[in-house]
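<instruction>
Derive structure tokens from the sequence
<data>
Labelled lines for chain and fold
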Amino acid sequence: MQSVAVDLLNAIYEQDFSDCSYGFRPGRSQHQALDEVGKVMCARPTSWVLELDIKAYFDSIVRENLSEMVRRRVRDGSMLRLIGKWINVGAIDDGKLIMSETGTGQGQPISPLLANIYLHHILDQWFEEEVKPRLRGEAHEIRYADDAILCFQYREDAEKVLEVLPKRFAKFGLTLHPEKTRRIAFGRFAQGEAKKRGKKKPDTFDFLGFTHIGARSRQGKFTVHVKTIDKRLRRGLKSIADWCKEHRHDPVNEQQKTLNAKLRGHYQYYGRRTNHVSIHRFYREVCGIWKKWLNRRTRGNPLTWEKFYEILRQNPLLTPRITHA
């Protein structure tokens, strides 16, 4: 029933949502948002970036505010009653029903859309209609669900917005993480800003699982390179290690099939053109993890690298590939 409601509401809100929003919308994806980062940084006069980090976003949504926002566009009483029930749903924990006054029930098909509606009013619409007309230079927003960056031409514009953002969010029950929400110099002139502050390298920022790094193309033009966030890489490898440990006694060909499925999924997301170093590292680490746990079942007959390479020859793992060129 919620899925049907999402289809109906999408027909309404797709007319309202801003182009800067990419999360949980029909025909939009994380990689489109990442592509937009490159376009804004390389093609527009952008020199400063604000990273936004909202503390426990889905659990902090004020339900009364969300309901009021929905009522602005939805007039049907039956639909509003259903949405009201879904917004105020409780959770079962250890056999007990727990009710809270904030947040939307995560895992519901309608929750991502409701979360998008909330940030559309709080951030997207406000930034486009009230903030940008008051700024000295260009400004751009790129958002995927609650993960967002704001890009500015001038430092003073970035500082003004950074000053008012916590107040704007607090008005709707949201809190920006004071350490993870920050302003950095990023763009063509970031190297000069870094030298002024006595830093060897310009700052980088994280967005949608990638660390974004300012670089130069072969023609000497400014460009943006990405690499897998170290924490994400370690988390992925730990997941592989846990699986190999648990399934080390399975037939080798079955292990190979599952590991290839995991590698394929990793390459499909992280296989961006400038991320080849990280995905090759992931492949090498996975090979080492697999060898380690295959070695644990040999009972005193060590699995040498020569023997392991023979296993790899017969049961090859999927080699790194660029899936987003």
